Amino acid sequence: CKENCTTLCLPNIKTPNRGAVSKFSPRETNQLQIPALLVHCINEIEQRGLQEIGIYRLNVVESQVKELKERILKSRTGLFDLSHYNDIHLICGVVKDFLRSLSESLLTDTLWKSFSNVIDEESYLIKQQKFDLLIQQLPKPNRDTLAFIILHLQRVSTSPLCRMPIINLSRTMGPAVIGYSSKHISNIDLVGETYQQTRILEFFLNMPSNYWSKFLETNITSTSMNKQQIGTPILIREHYYQTTPKINYPTPSNTFFSPI
C-alpha cells in the first residue's frame, strides 16, 4: 500500500527521548536514515512556510517548542498531524531544538575539529575536497540527515519572501546544524567554535545542491525498489504536493525535495 500513501512512508520504530541522531533514525542500511521528526517537520515547513518572513530567525515560546517536540517523539511513527499548528515558526523551533538536544553534533565529536581545521584553508578547492573526504567518513545517519537539512536550508535561502539569505541562516542555524565539538566545552572555546560553525555552515550552503542530493539519491539507486516502494523518510512527491499552494520563488536545481 506504500505506493498509494499520500504522505511520508516511515518505519514504525520506537523513538527514544535522547541520544545521537542514529538513535532516532531507521536502522536499515539500504534506507535513508533520517529521523522521522525532521522529515515530517521540514516537509510541513516547505509546504506552507516558505512564504513566511524570517523563518528559523524569529523566537518562539520555548515551553511550547518542547511540548510539541515531545508529542511528536511520543507518536508511534513520527507522523504527527502538524496541519492545525498555524504558527510555522513553532515547527521551525522544533527542528532547531531537536538538533540542539542531540547528544553529539551531526559532524560528530570525533570529526568536528577536523571540519573546523578545514574551514581555515585558504583555497576553496582544497576546502571542498577535504570537506568531501570528511563528509564521506560521517556515519550514514549523520550524513543523510546533514544532506537533507542542507538542501532544505538552500531552499529557504532562495525564497525572497523568507528574507533569510545564506549568511543569516548560517548564523541562526549554525548552533543546531553544525553544533560544537563537545557538549562540555569551556566558555573560551565556545566563542571560537561559534564563529567556526557559522563559517562551516555558510560553506556547506554554498556548495552545489547536486553534491548533497547524491547522498539521498544513492539510497534509491542502490536498490531495485523505486521511491514509492522504499519504507523510509522519502517524499511521495506526486501525492504530497498535489494540494500545496503555488509558491512563486526560485529553487535550486537538482534538489531532492523541491516543491512541485
Task: Describe the protein in words.
The protein has one domain (2-240): Phosphatidylinositol 3-kinase, Chain A, CATH 1.10.555. The model is unreliable at 2-14 and 221-260 (pLDDT under 50). With 260 residues, it is an all-alpha fold. 51% of the residues lie in helices and 0% in strands. Helix 7 (166-177) packs across helix 8.
CATH fold title: Phosphatidylinositol 3-kinase, Chain A
Please tally the helical runs, counting DSSP H or I stretches of 4 or more residues.
10
Largest sheet: none
Mean pLDDT, all residues: 81
List keywords for this structure.
Phosphatidylinositol 3-kinase, Chain A, mainly alpha, 260 residues, disordered C terminus, globular, single chain
In summary, what is this structure?
Helix 1 runs antiparallel to helix 3, helix 3 crosses helix 7 and helix 6 crosses helix 9.
Topology:
Blueprint: H1 36-48, H2 62-74, H3 88-101, H4 108-118, H5 124-137, H6 140-157, H7 166-177, H8 187-206, H9 209-221, H10 237-240
